[in-house]
Design goal:
Blueprint: H1 2-6, H2 19-38, H3 52-64, E1 70-75, H4 78-87, H5 95-104, E2 116-121
Parallel strand pairs: 1-2
Length: 125
């Protein structure tokens, strides 16, 4: 979102993204999440948190607010993701980003601290 606001109309490129941007995005996301939970709002985070480490902060914040947290895992092959990405007509995510994320993906587990984990399998339709 921040990239798009600063570069409106310009196609996103992996080469233009850096760790400073990522840190700012994560910080902002965390503060917004903490705010909504502190005022007792239900929150759905739409994020590609593919590893237990990338999900840990969300679980910790929910625990600090004494709230339960669940995960929805969408299981789709990298090939299907790339196909849908190409068909979207929107900013195309580079194939190496999709395959890299798929290679490091781990299905969420109750042992991470989730109270529920739902899995949705997408078969290409």
């Amino acid at each position: 979102m921040i990239f798009e606001m600063a570069n409106f109309g310009k196609t996103w490129s992996e080469d233009e993204f850096n760790n400073v941007d990522e840190a700012l995005v994560k910080y902002t996301e965390k503060r917004i999440l903490e705010h909504w939970l502190s005022v007792k709002r239900k929150v759905l985070i739409d994020n590609t948190s593919v590893t237990p480490a990338s999900r840990k902060a969300y679980i910790k914040i929910a625990g600090q607010h004494k709230l339960s947290i669940g995960a929805i895992y969408i299981n789709a092959s990298p090939e299907l993701c790339q196909k849908r990405n190409q068909q979207s007509g929107k900013d195309i995510i580079p194939a190496q980003v999709i395959t890299g994320m798929a290679a490091s993906a781990a299905k969420p587990a109750l042992s991470e601290g989730f109270s529920e984990v739902f899995s949705v399998d997408i078969n290409g339709t």
